[in-house]
Amino acid sequence: MAKNGFKIFDSDTHVGPYVDILERYLTAQEKERLKAWEPYKRTSLYAGQGGVGHVTYARGERKYARRLRQVSAEDSLKGYNTALKANARERPISLHVDDDPAERLKDMDYEGVDVNFLLPSGWFGTWTSGDDVTLEAAMYRAYHEWMNDYCGRFPERLGGLIICCGRDVEGSVAEIQRWGKARWPWGVLVYTPAGFPLDHPALEPIWKATAEHDLAVTLHTFTSMPPYAPGGLDTWENLFIQRSAAHPWCGMRNMAALIGAGLMDRYPTLRIGPLEAGHGWLPFWMKRLDEHAHTVKG
User: 49-85 pLDDT, tens per residue?
Assistant: First the structure.
């Protein structure tokens, strides 16, 4: 398939994962630990959240409820979701793209997209806000099992990433070694709690395993859920500022940390991709990094 003669690779599209789907991959003990998250549980009631009945969690959610030129946030705005403008649609959207990969392929065919690189939806970062690292790692393992099944039906057109728990480096390396040679993982995404830098030496085994398995480092910025994008707490509770300013800054910070720490010098074949922040800032940022590499000691 090609759109106007071009092969289209969508490098940042999201998929679930909803807890009611992932529960089939959890052990009885892990489901028991999940009960502690009951206060943060929410069940979708409309198509905008993927269809009626799907379960997510919202611990750590930020609302961005203030519009520009208003004195303060108004609860009636209901924050992030209502502040995003709905896109005009020429056809009804499927409520099952996160349940059935065949439904996703219908959308891809309609749009003329050949390949989807799938990332977990933004709410999944909620696990970094809790203290139960065992549960966090278990949710990521369940996600990998599910992605193996989901992408496995259309391996030429669907791929994803391995989520690494920054608080369980040994377990994360084991997941890379387990899945790294499978067809569906094309990259890794490291989830760390707020304030934990990606250049921290404790994460080195993850980067090493990533390079050894020829996976890309995926850097993704976040909005309403942890781990928050840098600057997300300094946008005066406004979504326009957060998306337009904090998102690119997140890509800049993450790239500066990894490049400045010599990650690509140690692993010269490693690929790094900053997503959901555009790339118009990249040329000037690379020039600035080159300049400061000679003037500021990292």
Answer: 455 688 999 999 888 888 888 888 765 455 444 555 5
Torsion-angle region of 64 (φ positive above 0: left; ψ -120 to 50: alpha; else: beta): left
Distance CA 11, CA 123 (A): 19
Q: Which residues of 268-296 are buried (b: 16+ CB within 10 A; e: fewer)?
A: eebebbbbbbeeebeeebeeeeeeeeeee
Integer Cα distance of 36 and 149 in angstroms: 28
| Helix, strand, coil percentages, rounded to 5, for the chain | 45, 15, 40
61, amino acid identity: E
- Distance, in Å, from the CA atom of 212 to the CA atom of 36, rounded to the nearest integer, reads 37
Going through 76-193 in order, the beta strands assigned E by DSSP cover: 115-120, 158-165, 185-191
Amino acid identity for residue 228 in this structure: Y
Tokens of 167: 């608080």
